[in-house]
Predict the 3D structure of the following.
Amino acid sequence: MTATENIRALQEENTRLREALRQRDVFIRETFGRYLTDEVLDEILSHQDTPAIGGERRVVSILFSDLRRSTELSEQMDAADFIRMLNHYFAEMIEIINAWQGNILEFVGDAIVAVFGAPRENEYAARDAAACAVAMQRRMTAINTWNREQGFPEVAMGIGLHTGEAILGSIGSETRMKYDMIGRNVNLASRVQSYTAGGQILATDEFLTAAGDQVKVSEENTLWVTPKGIKGQIRLHSITGFGKQRIEGK
């Protein structure tokens, strides 16, 4: 084989390998795109081999949301109707969280766990999380309009927000893993959500400090609470809007 033929053969092999990688990327995105955000997919695709099972400590903003009366509704409604209603709600929430650069880590029943500022760093993570939470509550008006049109009951959602250090990384084994976060501040964010009423957003001092002055709060609805597993009292603020956007009725 001549030198020219060798070069041509190498170029053809290079082209074939690039096409194989492109098809792999397309397959992964089409298969897992509904379950993982673009950020996590990019992290996976950036590794030639299996993604490392490791972690890092990072300050992030954490969002927990939960529907009220969902257990009661699941027992009262037809199963297919309940799942249809829940999936419509999730579709609307996922769109908003993705738009504000949030990364959904998990659905726990009807609850959503999302992180802002990971796996890619974002200096405006808390600001984005605040705007996202307000947009989520505002979207509930349209969701309930759709629910009424379908003959479904209206629903309400509570959101808890906190900013702090967490351990983030791929957790599991070589055969099954997920990107997740662990730590005291994750537990605290979950506790914050548990104090919310339907239609309410509660946030910690740490979150408000990180989010900036575009966040609107109702000082008269400030709470002092003692969450289980957390030392001492913490102050929770009721967020009513972001910038010029206000939650309906707030």
Q: What stands out?
A: The first strand starts at residue 56 and ends at 67.
